[in-house]
Amino acid sequence: QAERGDFRHYIIPLLHTLMYTLIKAPCISDELCSRAYDFCKKLLTLPKPFCTIGLDYAVRLKMERTAPGTLYQRMVISEQSLKSDPYPYQEKIFIFADPELLSEAICNALVTDTEAAQVSQNPRACMCYVIIHAMQATLGEGCDISGLRASLQDMPTSDVEHWFQQVVVAVECAGNEASADRDQHAARLEKIYHAVLGSSQAGDSPQGGLQGTPLPNPNISFHLWTEDDQLWKELVLFIRPLSQSCEPDCLSQDLDSFEIQDIISDCECCEQTRFSVLSTDSGIERDLPVAVEDSFTPCSTETEQSRLHRKGGIKKKPSPLESVAFLQAGCNNPGAKPSVKLQRRPGIPAEPAAPLQRLHTARIVLLGDDRLLGRLAQAYRSLRKRETRRVFLTPRLNLQFYYIPVVTGQPNPSAVTDHAATSQEELCEVAAYLGKADPWYESNINTLCHMIPKLATMPSSPSKHLVTDLFITDVIAYYVRMGIQPICFQVYAVKIFFNDPAQEPAEDVFLTELRTQVQDSISHRELCVTKKKTTLDGPGIDLTVTYRKVVVSNRAKELVTSLRSTGLVMKAIPADEAEGDCCQGKGMEGKGDTHWGFPSLSIQAVANRLKTNNIKIRSTEQRPFTVCLDKDRRRAYKNVI
């Protein structure tokens, strides 16, 4: 009906609901799967995002028709971090909240909800779910679910893991082969099914019909964002334990061709015990002083340390996460012997190392307002700078961001200043834009903005057990699982100069807004004494704006304008939907159902309005003003010129 009528904006939410139902269904008829597949192919003729989502779901449905139960199996394996060689991908959901922006009651409610969601997580139970769902999806009503479940419960864990691996291999082989035969796949699973039941029980138990298999909650962890580098630390801790299971053969091949010291010498943390030395050596042996040669003995360690010590330097104590032993644990086998220093064999060319696969996906869910997103932009910039110095996370990790707006009814007075935005609409501009782009996001995610604070203040249940209605966790899981189309946001860099020449310029970034306001620290009378009065009396200061104009031809055209203003606001999000350019912007990536970018800034000062992607603002009167980034008073800079 949505396809025939003028209700195209309902197609994607309905398609998400259909696919989620098909994944959880015990068995799908071939006729229903064929109709859904044909509908997804029709979406290929529509513009984005319909064609991209239709293509993604068409590929999934084709695989599900060949090997029933593939989508459910992959989702459980990745979310529960079950070890499987045919499908080694693993995922984890990180929920980040700023304790200065949310009340203690909301944080406690979120902690309770996430802890209750992890109660049902049991590797053995999850492996049984995968086996039962695969058998039922392939064999249909001919599968004895009660007998199969009883047989799996009586087995030891090692046997359950064995049959789990057998089922995973069978399903993955059928799903990855282009010319796979569904009948052969069904015969292979039926053989495993009879082996699990046993010869005595096969065929004796009555058929109980189709039964639903639970879909376990994903692996979710809740974090209060209290440290600037906390995001990076959590991602490293997520990667390291899983990467310890690498095969030692890969390491031995690398050691045959390379010296291990060459590999670790590029890391900054490997030089934590070294001191910088200014070398005056010419490289000629005869130029060495005689005293140095005579004093060099095995026992002269104190002399050598004093000679190599840099005076006046500050030795930075590295974090344990920065150590080479920690980061390189991802390439070493836990049971392997420590590697020795190996020299490169002469005459043997260096073999290029195999590219790493991104087997891990970190889904970052942010609960808060635009101020939290600004903090995320800072953390993302810091992470990218860290990766340019030493690459560790980038080749191993897929990083995705999800946003759920949460605003308390009465904001914390200490978190808002006079020049910062105080209304809920201004604090949730990103959520409002995502709601316009996706009707499902508007009706399901934006409503949590007021619902989560209400749930946190509700009286607790008289039952001593954990809550059973995990509404917030279910919505987050559905949002994370079905959000397949990214929305890209531009991260803008800012360089701020201060009135004091001795103070170093500050570099920062912002995601949604930059707001300036004139300071009253310098009176007008003091200004007239030090500088000749060149302007008329009036509020505000004279600003010189140099910007690069955005034109269709993409040619650089710099313009200069002057204006007098008491404040200036830069907006990265267009005021209305017509101003959004349908193009991909390089930057952070969030999840949604449309693909939008913001390649330019919208600056508004009084009646002047312009669009640019590079701008320089300076006070000609040398009067300072205040700069606030992303409406966050913690990121306000004073005495800026």
Automatic annotation (TrEMBL):
<dbReference type="InterPro" id="IPR019522">
    <property type="entry name" value="PIK3R5/6"/>
</dbReference>
<dbReference type="GO" id="GO:0005944">
    <property type="term" value="C:phosphatidylinositol 3-kinase complex, class IB"/>
</dbReference>
<keyword id="KW-0808">Transferase</keyword>
<dbReference type="Pfam" id="PF10486">
    <property type="entry name" value="PI3K_1B_p101"/>
</dbReference>
<keyword id="KW-0418">Kinase</keyword>
<protein>
    <submittedName>
        <fullName>PI3R6 kinase</fullName>
    </submittedName>
</protein>
<dbReference type="GO" id="GO:0007186">
    <property type="term" value="P:G protein-coupled receptor signaling pathway"/>
</dbReference>
<dbReference type="GO" id="GO:0046935">
    <property type="term" value="F:1-phosphatidylinositol-3-kinase regulator activity"/>
</dbReference>
<dbReference type="GO" id="GO:0016301">
    <property type="term" value="F:kinase activity"/>
</dbReference>
